[in-house]
Amino acid sequence: xxxxxxxxxxxxxxxxxxxxxxxxxxxxxxxxxxxxxxxxxxxxxxxxxxxxxxxxxxxxxxxxxxxxxxxxxxxxxxxxxxxxxxxxxxxxxxxxxxxxxxxxxxxxxxxxxxxxxxxxxxxxxxxxxxxxxxxxxxxxxxxxxxxxxxxxxxxxxxxxxxxxxxxxxxxxxxxxxxxxxxxxxxxxxxxxxxxxxxxxxxxxxx
Length: 206
Prior knowledge:
The chain is of the alpha+beta class. The chain contains six helices and nine strands, in the order E-H-E-E-H-E-E-H-H-E-H-E-H-E-E. The protein folds into three domains: about 5-50, no CATH class; about 55-135, GMP Synthetase, Chain A, domain 3 (2-Layer Sandwich); about 135-205, 2-Layer Sandwich (Ribosomal Protein S8, Chain: A, domain 1).
């Protein structure tokens, strides 16, 4: 996979110039911009490193293929890009092996692919990996559960502490309950045991 490098003295025009050179839009690339000293009398310069989203998409697919091979399972991998987030969907006859208990293997696969891409590119890429809509279904049930708990907090005025969960799940809860008038959510604790607390909020005092 080709990683392209551009240099310039003006930060505001460097990206625009690179996009014109590549004939691409900003949504079609990932990039990192760094500042370097050009020399004692030359001031500073900017280094722009660019990689195509489509190239990263293929790299992620190859990484997943190798991981499935290591698990000794076969699967078809589909991918799509939306707002520079790459989503991979795995279809296999061995879903339970790929997902693992409580989705732990699937989470490990996703984390590995993200870290492997970052290690190679030094650019963060948002990657999501799912198996037969497992995460989508889990998200639905999680949202349904926390909305029920939010209604309990509204009635009892007693806070509820949830089990530790990852940052994606915590954000899902914050977003799901943002419209509740009498509750608020806060993430507390330290990683990897960070959790969400659903708290009663007296709207009259806000």
